[in-house]
Each structure stands twice: as C-alpha cells, then as structure tokens.
Amino acid sequence: MIIGVPKEIKEKEFRVGIVPSGVKALVQAGHTVLLEQGAGEGSGITDEQYSSAGATLIPSAAEVWAKADLIMKVKEPLPPEYPLLRSGLILYTYLHLAPLPELTQALLDAKVTGVAYETVQLDNGFLPLLAPMSQVAGRMAIQVGAHFLEKETGGRGVLLAGVPGVAPGHVTILGSGTVATNAAQMAIGLGAEVTMLGRNLRRLAELDDLFRGRLTTLASSQHTIEEELGRADLVVGAVLTPGARAPKLISRKMLSLMRSGAVIVDVAIDQGGCAETSRPTYHSDPTYTVDGIIHYCVANMPGAVPRTSTFALTNATLPHVLAMADKGFARAVRENRALLRGVNVYQGKIINREVAESQGREWSEVSF
Questions:
Q1: From 31, 96, 170, 295, the catalytic residue
Q2: Is 170 designated active site?
Q3: What is the per-residue pLDDT across 330-353, written as a single tens digit (0 to 9) for each?
Q4: Nearest CA-CA partner of 108 in 97, 118, 99, 119
Q5: CATH class of 131-304
Q6: 295 with 234: CB under 8 angstroms?
Q7: What are the tens digits of pLDDT across the range 166-209?
Q8: Which of 86, 292, 302, 324 is least buried, going by the fewest C-beta atoms within 10 A?
Q9: H helix or E strand, kind and range, residue 201
Q10: What separation in angstroms does the CA of 149 have from each of 82, 171, 234, 284, 361?
C-alpha cells in the first residue's frame, strides 16, 4: 500500500501524521511512504530523518494526495484540501465531523473512506487514538487557564496555587473522562481547589479513590453546574460523546453566575463545545471575552506542543495503519471491531450513527 503524509495546513498546527520509526515499520513491511517535504519540521523532525527511515520525499501536497492509497494526517481536511479528495481514497485522521456538515458532505461527494481517530473504540468504551491527545489537552487546559487568569491577559488576577494565608483558585471540571482526569491531575498538582462534575457515578468513585480525597466529585446536573460556576476561577469543558456533538452545559445566561475575569477552557470545542458561547479559535488569537468571561477554545490545543503530541499520537495510530496496509482495508476492519467503529463515512454513506444524528442525516449499516 502507498501511504501519503502531507503537511498540516491548519493555522499553527505543527504536528505531523507519522514519525520516522513509523515510516521504518511500514517500509520494512513492504509498503511505500510518501511524505511531503518539510512536513515534520514543526515537530522537530527533519526530511533527512524521514529519508533515512525509508520515506520518499515529495515536493507538493497535491502529489502526495494523488499518489497515495491512504492519507495519514492529524487534523481534518480544510476547504483548500477538498479538491484533493477522491473516490477510493482512505483518509485516516481526526475528523470530528459532528459540527462540520460541509466537510461531511465533501467526503460523501468524493466517496472517501473516512476513518476517524476519535471514534476508534474498544469494547470497554476506551478511545485509544483519542486518549493521547486528550491527555495532552487536559494537562494543557490547566496550563493555559492559569495563564489567562493573570490580570495582564484580562483575567481575575488569581494564582491557582494560592500562597500561605491566601486561598487557592477554584477549578471546575465538567466531565470525568481522560481530559478531565488529566486536568484534575495538573490542577491538584498546582495546589488548586478542584471539583469535577460527571454523570457516571462509578467513574467518580474511581477518581475519588485515585486522588485520595484531594478531588471533590459531584453528580452533574444543571443545579450543580450553576453552583460551581459561581465559585469557579477556571472552568474546563471536558465532556465527550464519541462521534456526537458535545452537550451544551453552559448557556449564555449562566455566564452571569461567574465572576468577571474567570476563564472557560472548552476542550470539547472539536465536537462543537460545551458552552453556548464557545466558537473555535486559533493559537495565534486563542481567546475572546463574552459578558466578562474569557473563552479559550483552540480546536487543536496539542498542536502547541507538537514534539510531545506527534510522538504520542503515532504510538497509538501506527498499529492500525499497519493493519490496514498489511491486510487491506476491508479485512482489517472485519477483524478489528475497534477500527470498524472508527469508520465514519464509506462510499458516499455515513455509517457512524452519532455523526449522522448530530447532523440530522441518515446513516447506513455496511458489511465489509
């Protein structure tokens, strides 16, 4: 199989779809890797390192897309890449289609096979390809939230850690999954007061044990969310329903419960965001203010730390691309239920129910 790896074109996106060790593994298995020149520079990986691993360097993205059987990326295609989509192409990347009907239609029109990292799911519910970036984003949420709480950035002027004689800042985390757990770990490590709201009481009990009483857990409801908004210096939106739009847990009216200069870091923005007032932003202009509340809604947070993120992502994605290359797509998904759940679109049809329902479209069951 010919695997193509183009350079990411999303603003300030420095990650790349594969690292040299991944190239070497694919080449040793008898496959060809076409890599756009300079694709790894943002992650500190040179063309020479890729070439030494066996990649064929290609000067243009269009040529990579045209020659590849499978395109391996990090982020979803942007409008300038839509003309490069074609029938029979396998696209293996983060798609986050629920809030992106235009991209969904482009994939359907081109009859692309779209395998979304974020919906590859084990039988126990674990999302192995989303997990590494969720870990990064969860940890970053506290880091960036602490920064934008500083007065010079428009924040409340609160130090999350506090100091002796002064109370620490209060962090409220909506959700109890991987993002939420990593955010709690960072916030507690800084010395902040942390409350987590979730609907899975069993998971909350596990986290209570994990953090040995240093984390307050609450069953999520509109009442508890409203109470927490009144206390929070920093709110981390970390809710996720695989494939579907994020639920809107914070209405604009509820912002009035918060103190001026408080910060919302909406990590759920890839799936539409969990605040009514959330809209995607970019690393070059990451925040905006609504009713005195600072919103940080960067849709590719891990792109700011590409050296860490790229290697963590490839660790997770490589086994599946090897399976698709070695066995062929149909056999690979037949033999791996987790990978099958990652297929969002196929031959002009949406086959992921959550994606279809989020856009009011029909979905189809397909046998491979």
A1: 96
A2: no
A3: 999 999 999 999 999 999 999 999
A4: 97
A5: alpha beta
A6: no
A7: 999 999 999 999 999 999 999 999 999 999 999 999 999 999 99
A8: 86
A9: helix 201-210
A10: 39, 11, 8, 18, 41
Q: Are 350 and 361 in contact (CB under 8 A)?
A: yes
Q: Is 123 a catalytic residue?
A: no
Bridge partners (DSSP) of residue 32 are 2
What is the residue extent of each domain of the chain?
A: 2-126+306-358, 131-304
User: What confidence category does residue 367 fall into, taking pLDDT thresholds of 50, 70 and 90?
Assistant: confident
Indicate the pLDDT class of residue 243, thresholds 50, 70 and 90. confident
Question: Which is catalytic among the residues 170, 233, 266, 270?
Answer: 270
For 15-78, the DSSP string reads --S--HHHHHHHHHTT-EEEEETTTTGGGT--HHHHHHHTPEEES-HHHHHHH-SEEE-SSPPP
- Domain 131-304 in the same topology as domain 2-126+306-358: yes
Whether the model clears a pTM of 0.90, i.e. scores above it, the answer is yes
Chain centroid to CA 61: 23
* Mean pLDDT value across the chain: 97
Q: Which CATH number fits domain 2-126+306-358: 3.40.50.300, 3.40.50.720, 3.90.190.20, 3.40.50.1820?
A: 3.40.50.720
Candidates 79, 44, 78, 83; CA nearest to 62 is 83
